[in-house]
């Protein structure tokens, strides 16, 4: 286990029916102690894993879920194979009740196979579950997902949305890094990933500091959050986080939302296009494009297009849905030529 000196800030007394903006707009991780302690799924899990599984089965309606299955020798760490040509697990589709049966079947094994169901929409998979177990986000409309499995380790990655992650069964350990630690986390391929997001290549259980020496600097800036049943964690957009599920059965419910309009594309599209079109230019041209990006994107303000009549600013105007649709169509036309 990594020696993390810094603990994520803990707060208590947050009303789960009306999460405040000082939590939901935080730029630092926040541990929300006991936020969902009164949820029925939490109370069932505190009785036993079997009680929690029985509670979940109440809402099951023959749903198929995506699961990751790994052999015992991966020790719960879902990752690449040796030469990064593939992965050390199988991605399968199965019925949720079959997955729960598998967890129960291996509950007493000292080295069980790794079983993981991630990011499954609750309303599709377990209709009615949120009627008894839910949070209040005001006028925000987050996507609510459930994550289930046994002892697993999910490599450090970041997500575009803000995230409230609620530990409802079992215990989890989160190791979090601010976005600027990117260069010290040794991120793997951007376009071939275990589950959609680029991940750190460092094994947090056995960090190889000869191969990854800058990781020691990342650890200096890390924050640790250790959560039990009923606790929640707010993870700001773009914060890197490594997640360990520590018990024979673990359930997490999370809520994702973006602070930008739904019509905006993911910035990863811009990054991949920039890699494709800008990265390998001669240095002088890259420098020129760096200045263009800084002027029109990263340092853009009301003065950027002030010299252009307002009705003629087009893409330099504030974005709206129609403008984004038009720009997307023209980009697709260019890319498909």
TrEMBL record:
<dbReference type="InterPro" id="IPR041667">
    <property type="entry name" value="Cupin_8"/>
</dbReference>
<dbReference type="Pfam" id="PF13621">
    <property type="entry name" value="Cupin_8"/>
</dbReference>
<dbReference type="InterPro" id="IPR014710">
    <property type="entry name" value="RmlC-like_jellyroll"/>
</dbReference>
<feature type="domain" description="JmjC">
    <location>
        <begin position="115"/>
        <end position="272"/>
    </location>
</feature>
<dbReference type="InterPro" id="IPR003347">
    <property type="entry name" value="JmjC_dom"/>
</dbReference>
<protein>
    <submittedName>
        <fullName>Cupin-like domain-containing protein</fullName>
    </submittedName>
</protein>
């Amino acid at each position: 286990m990594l020696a993390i000196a810094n603990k994520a800030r803990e707060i208590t007394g947050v009303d789960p029916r009306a999460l405040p903006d000082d939590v939901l707009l935080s730029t630092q991780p926040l541990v929300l102690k006991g936020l969902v302690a009164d949820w029925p799924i939490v109370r069932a899990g505190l009785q036993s894993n079997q009680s929690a599984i029985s509670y979940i089965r109440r809402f099951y309606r023959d749903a198929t879920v995506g699961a990751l299955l790994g052999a015992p020798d991966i020790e719960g760490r879902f990752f690449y194979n040796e030469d990064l040509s593939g992965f050390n697990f199988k991605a399968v589709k199965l019925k949720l009740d079959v997955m729960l049966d598998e967890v129960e079947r291996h509950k007493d094994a000292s080295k069980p196979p790794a079983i993981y169901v991630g990011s499954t929409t609750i309303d599709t998979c377990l209709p009615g579950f949120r009627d008894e177990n839910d949070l209040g986000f005001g006028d925000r409309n987050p996507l609510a997902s459930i994550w289930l499995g046994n002892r697993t380790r999910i490599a450090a990655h970041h997500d575009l949305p803000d995230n409230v992650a609620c530990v409802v069964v079992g215990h989890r350990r989160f190791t979090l890094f601010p976005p600027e630690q990117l260069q010290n986390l040794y991120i793997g391929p951007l376009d071939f990933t275990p589950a959609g997001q680029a991940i750190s290549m460092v094994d947090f259980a056995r960090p190889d500091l000869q191969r990854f020496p800058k990781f020691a600097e990342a650890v200096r800036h890390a924050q640790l959050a250790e959560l039990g049943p009923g606790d929640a964690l707010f993870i700001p957009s773009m914060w890197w986080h490594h997640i360990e599920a520590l018990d024979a059965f673990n359930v997490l419910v999370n809520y994702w939302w973006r602070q930008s309009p739904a019509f905006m594309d993911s910035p990863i599209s811009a990054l991949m296009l920039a890699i494709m079109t800008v990265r390998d230019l001669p240095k002088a041209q890259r420098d020129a494009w760096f200045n263009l990006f800084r002027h029109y994107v990263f340092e853009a303000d009301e003065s950027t297009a002030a010299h252009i009549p307002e009705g003629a600013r087009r893409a330099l105007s504030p974005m709206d849905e129609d403008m984004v649709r038009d720009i997307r169509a023209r980009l697709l036309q260019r890319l498909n030529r």
